[in-house]
Structures are given as C-alpha cells and as structure tokens.
Amino acid sequence: MFSAIVIDKTDAGQTVAVRSLDESQLPEGDVTIDVQYSTINFKDGLAITGTSPVVRKFPMVPGIDLVGTVRESSHGDWKPGDTVVLNGWGVGEGHWGGLAQKARLKGDWLVPLPAAFTPKQAMAIGTAGYTAALCVDALVGHGVKPEQGEVLVTGATGGVGSVAVALLARAGFTVAASSGKTSEGDYLKKLGATSIIDRAELSEKGKPLQRERWAGVVDSVGSHTLANALAQTKYQGVVAACGLAQGADLPGTVMPFILRGVSLVGVDSVMAPRAPRMAAWARLARDLDPALLDVIGVETGLEGAISAASAIVAGKVRGRVIVDVNR
C-alpha cells in the first residue's frame, strides 16, 4: 500500500483527498518508481482545485513532476537503483502522476537526475525550472546575446520566472524582472535581476508599438502582458512564450513582427523530445547555483500540497513548492 493524492469526480462534483492505494492499482508502464519528491506547479493547482479541466480521466493522481528511485524496470535504459526525473508527458492529466509514494511510467519519459542536484533540489527546479531552461535555450538559440540589451522576465516571482532570472543572469544577461509582488525586490535581486518592474506596467491594454526596450523576453503570463512585451521588444528581438497566468488570449497586432522583425517563439515543456530535455537539464546543472534553490523552494507534505494548490492558483506562492511525498 502507498499514499497518494487522488482526484475523483462524482455527481456532486470533484473530490480531492490523500488516500491509501494498492500497488496493483498503478497504471501500465515499464518502470516502477519509489517516489521521493514531487512539486506543485500551476497546472497541478488547476487540476487539484478543479479551476480548469486539466484532468482528462478519473480517478487521477496529480503531479506533473517527480524524482525517485527505480525499483523495477523492463526498459533498456533503466535499472533498479537509478535515480530518475519525470517532467510532463501528460502525467497528472491522463496518466497517474507524482503526488504519490509510488509511480509506474514509461521509461521513454524519464531523464537521469543530474549529478549536480539532490532529488529535493531537482524538484525545487521541476517543470517550472526545466521550462525556464528551455526558454533561455530558445533565446540563445535564436541569437540573443547579452550585449544586445536587457532581457525581460514576466511573472518573475513564479517558478518559471524565478529560475529564468537566475539562469539569464548567470549567462551574462542584464535582467529586468516584472512582478505583481514588488515587495519581493530583494528576492529577485538575489536571483540576479538588476531592475524590478511593476506588473501593472504591462498588464493593461497598450499601444501596438511602444518604445524599444528588450533584446529578449521570457513570458509565462500571456494576454496583455505578452502583447505589451512584444510591442516593447527591440528590432529583431526574440520573445519566448511558455505560459498563460494572465490569460490564453493575445490581444495584440502584427506590428512588432512586420515592422521590427520580432520573433515569437512558443516553448512547450510537456511533449518536448529527449534532446532538448537533456540540453535544458544540462544548462540547469551548469548555470543554476544549487544554493539558490534554498531561496526558491519551500517544502510541504502530501496533505499540505492540497492547500498549496489553492495558493498557487490564487497567485500567493513565491518560487517553488516541493512536496515530500513520504511525510
């Protein structure tokens, strides 16, 4: 038997509770994992609170991230005792996820835990940090260089934003951090931001073209914030978009694209192939100071994860929530 958060649906609505399950109830997969840590991401928050129809079948164990030790494997890449990381692949949505003491998954979904990080640190990074690394890789891959000017990070106190600030600063970029939590300026500067911008400067409808400010942008917010960021991006600048905390709409115009040659690059972390996943984790291992993870992450257990889900949807969480599934 093992403990897990279980989301179920009845005629009266959605239920969420920590339950005891039998290992025979685990879904199909060729690798069985003893989970050590998981996390609460924004998507997990939506699933647990029922705010958005993230979960595609019930009952569901949420948790799009996990780190743990392989106990059984019929997959050629993994053997008992290996420590592995899982991010995305629809886990926690259509396949039981990481907010449990055990998981059974496809070996193709897993990557090895980088030697630079402990299991707990890997979940302080989680999908949010891995997505941030994909975004930084996208900017660098599209030619953005530190000497071209400031890079903007929106939603900077969130999981993606926090790690993006740290990675960009370590790569030599001058980082402007946008957040609604202006009281967190010291936190953002500790991560490497050189200036703090109030979210309100970007969150309302703006002009189609504005003063050129940013050589690049990492945006996890969407809606008017993304539209304004595009309108402020310099000639041939690059914007990496990976989230929709403000909204899924993009109420802008084609003007930044056709008059300034701005590139909008979509970044997907869920179904990204193995090569960019490995490259993102390599960047994290190389450029992310593990000591910063103590600043970014706070820890809770399975019961606490349920209340943390509500807090993250309400925008009340700074950084990352690490879930010790065995407490």
Give the helices and strands, then pairings.
Blueprint (H helix, E strand, L loop, with lengths): L1 E9 L2 E9 L9 E10 L1 H8 L15 E9 L9 E5 L14 E4 L4 E3 L6 H23 L9 E3 L5 H12 L4 E5 L5 H7 L3 E4 L15 E6 L3 H10 E9 L13 H6 L2 E4 L7 H14 L5 H4 E4 L1 H12 L6 E5 L3
Parallel strand pairs: 8-9, 8-11, 9-10, 11-12, 12-13, 14-15
Antiparallel strand pairs: 1-2, 3-4, 3-6, 3-15, 4-5, 5-7
Helix pairs in contact: 1-9, 2-3, 2-7
Question: How many E-type strands?
Answer: 15
Mean pLDDT: 95
Number of domains: 2
CATH superfamily of the largest domain: Medium-chain alcohol dehydrogenases, catalytic domain
Global morphology? globular
What order do the helices and strands follow? Answer: EEEHEEEEHEHEHEEHEHEHHEHE
The major β-sheet equals: 7 strands, mixed
Low-confidence parts, pLDDT < 50 over ≥5 residues?
A: none
CATH class of the largest domain: Alpha Beta
Look at the helices and sheets and give the structural class: alpha/beta
The percent range for strand residues is 25-35%
CATH fold category name of the largest domain? Quinone Oxidoreductase, Chain A, domain 1
Distance between the termini: 15 Å
Q: If you compute it from the alpha carbons, what radius of gyration comes out, rounded to the nearest whole angstrom?
A: 20 Å
Known CATH architecture of the largest domain: Alpha-Beta Complex
Give the proportion of residues in helices: 25-40%
Description of the molecule:
The protein is an alpha/beta fold. The chain folds into two domains: 2-113 and 291-324, Medium-chain alcohol dehydrogenases, catalytic domain (Quinone Oxidoreductase, Chain A, domain 1), CATH 3.90.180; 126-266, Rossmann fold, CATH 3.40.50. It is 29% helix and 27% strand. The protein is built from nine helices and 15 strands. Strands 3, 4, 5, 6, 7, 14 and 15 form a seven-stranded mixed β-sheet that branches. It has a six-stranded parallel β-sheet with strand order 10-9-8-11-12-13, with helices on both faces. Strand 1 (2-10) and strand 2 form a beta hairpin. The longest helix is centred in the middle third of the chain and has 23 residues, at 119-141. The protein is globular, with a radius of gyration of 20 Å. 50% of the residues are buried.
